[in-house]
Amino acid sequence: MTRAYNMTKRADQQAETRLRIVEAAIDLHGTVGPARSSFSMVAERAGVQRHTLYAHFPDERSLLMACSSLHLERQPLPDPEPWRAIGDRDERLRMGIGALYGWYARNEALAGCVLRDIEVNEIVREVAGLRIGAPIAACEGVLAAGFGKRQKAMLHLAFDFYTWRSLVRASGLKTSAAVETMVLAINGVK
Predict the structure, then answer these.
(1) Which of 99, 2, 17, 91 is nearest to 56 (CA)?
(2) pLDDT number for residue 156
(3) What is the rounded (10 degree) CA torsion for 51, 19, 105, 136?
(4) Over the range 93-129, which residues count as b (16 or more CB within 10 Å of their CB) and which as e?
(5) Over the Cα atoms of the chain, what is R_g?
(6) End-to-end CA distance of the chain
(7) Fold classification of 2-73 (topology level)
(8) Mean pLDDT calculated for residue range 23-40
């Protein structure tokens, strides 16, 4: 009986160590970015030896997959399904763009670093595509129903993180004003 308890305790310790590593990596990814976060930096931040980190995550991809999984579990992207029930197209747009802009605001540092790093790191680009590509496309798909090509292009622009940052951070608009600006822009093209 003692043996089973020790194995359970060991498994709990391993899970805690793994979580500590992932949280340390997420923290670094939101400050210096995933492409600039070395395994040595992650191990130091987590308070573990590099060999311990490698025992849990043998390569960069496995660590990035764990980090993105945990982060999206804690900070899920908007679910577009409830938007389908909104009959008024402009209200549906406001709801969808507003939900995404709220997510950007809550995840600004990490999203900014990751999106910067997808330009220079193939593994970051691959993992970001796997984790956020389909959910963002689903959100766009729900909102773009009945749109022409130019309106879809404008919606795609509205969904871009850098559009949000330009409107809210650089131009100083409140989120509601940024959302309304994009609804007007989408409606302004045919």
Answers:
(1) 17
(2) 97
(3) 90
(4) bbbbbbbbbebbeebbebbbbbbebbeebebbbebbe
(5) 20
(6) 72
(7) Tetracycline Repressor; domain 2 (1.10.357)
(8) 98
For residue 155, give the nearest of 175, 170, 137 by alpha carbon: 137
Q: How far apart are the C-alpha atoms of 116 and 110, rounded to whole Å?
A: 10
How does pLDDT run across 121-141, given as a tens digit for each residue? 999 999 999 999 999 999 999
Task: Pick the closest to residue 38 from 47, 30, 50 (CA basis).
Answer: 50
| pTM for the model | 0.92
C-beta separation of 29 from 110 below 8 A: yes
| 9/25: higher pLDDT | 25
pLDDT of amino acid 165:
98
Task: Render pLDDT for 50-89 as a digit per residue (tens, 0 to 9).
Answer: 999 999 999 999 999 999 999 999 999 999 999 999 999 9
Among residues 74, 64, 41, the alpha carbon closest in space to that of 129 is found at 64
Written as one string, the DSSP assignment of 54-116 is HHH-SSHHHHHHHHHHHHHHHSPPPP-GGGGG--SHHHHHHHHHHHHHHHHHHTHHHHHHHHH
Residue 35 CB burial class (10 angstroms; 0-12, 13-18, ≥19): buried
